[in-house]
Amino acid sequence: MISKINAESKIVTLIARIEKAILSTGNNGSNYLILNLIDKSGRIEARLWNSIEKDVEELKSGLIVKIEAVTNVYRQQLQLKVNSYEIIDEKDYKKHNINEEMFSISAPINVESHYEKLIDFITTIDNETYKKITLAILKQYEVQFKTFPAAVSIHHNVVGGLFWHSYSLLMGAKAIREVYKYADIDWELVYCGTILHDIGKVLEMAGKNASEYTDVGKLLGHISIGNTFVSNKAIELGLKDNEDVLKLQHVILASHGKNEYGSPVEPLLIEAVIISSLDSLDARIYKINDELSKVEKDAWSSRILSEDGRSYLNHNKKK
């Protein structure tokens, strides 16, 4: 398992799924492959130096591979140098005592039970427009909402990550309501906005183990897709030209906070400010924590692009 590999492991044998294979060229002009590997215990980067055309053709995203490798620490992060590899076909899974579920990381919550709690909570909402639209969209895309990741790499890129991220925002919103009770806030709009802010990812992501975005996702983006979901459901439910529909669309369209971060519009409702702030906070905590988990105590993480290239100190990692 990936989680058991450390710098002292030296030579390792590992069976993992290739999340992504990236062809690169070294300073000496020779090609090499960067393999992002995953199993249920974690992720690790491996490199196949002096790759030939056969390697590039064989090592594709989604394949299960058995590798013989040596460990290496580069910029305080553990890597593998691949000495040899074997592609494992699905028909040979039994021979290797493996199955598909062994090569995905799942959200650390019980999605099924929390989804039931989520639906029960939505049914208590008084605003019929928010409630009907939210329930109708979730009913249509229940399987994807519960299983898809929230992103390819930036945050919550695990099976069930989309639900986990959305549910975390809802819990965060509920937790701060008492703190900001002095403010005039439509909390039901906030709640439904947290649930639906990323719902377009059910079409943007290419499955529960997505390492790429779909063509629809690349061309339209999840924010535009989510806005369309709300608009279409409003028409379907006879709620067209409803002011509450407009507000629900706005908090989705403004969920990334700024135009340069991908929001078609910036927050112009206080509820949109809350949702975009919670969204950013949850994504940042996940990404920073994930990078810190890859380094030892008192070491610095690699530079995180989504954090303007900053590194973070792992000052309190538990052994």
What's the layout of helices and strands?
Layout (H helix, E strand, L loop, with lengths): L10 E15 L5 E9 L2 E7 L4 H6 L5 E11 L2 E12 L22 H12 L5 H13 L1 H6 L13 H16 L10 H10 L4 H4 L10 H6 L1 H15 L6 H11 L16 H23 L27
Parallel strand pairs: 3-5
Antiparallel strand pairs: 1-2, 1-4, 2-3, 4-5
Helix pairs in contact: 3-9, 5-6, 5-11, 6-10, 6-11, 9-10
Highlighted features:
319 residues, alpha+beta, OB fold (Dihydrolipoamide Acetyltransferase, E2P), Hypothetical protein af1432, 5-stranded mixed beta barrel, 5 strands
- As a percent range, the share of strand residues is 15-25%
Average pLDDT value? 92
Shape: elongated
User: Cα-atom Rg, whole angstroms?
Assistant: 22 Å
Helix percent reads: 25-40%
Which spans of ≥5 residues are poorly predicted at pLDDT below 50?
A: none
Strands, count? 5
Please give the oligomerization state of what you see.
single chain
Terminal-residue CA separation: 18 Å
Structural class computed from helices and strand pairing: alpha+beta
Largest beta sheet: strand ordering: 1-2-3-5-4
Main sheet properties: 5 strands, mixed, barrel
Fill in the CATH topology of the largest domain: Hypothetical protein af1432
CATH architecture of the largest domain: Orthogonal Bundle
Order of helices and strands: EEEHEEHHHHHHHHHH
Structure described in brief:
This protein has 319 residues and is an alpha+beta fold.
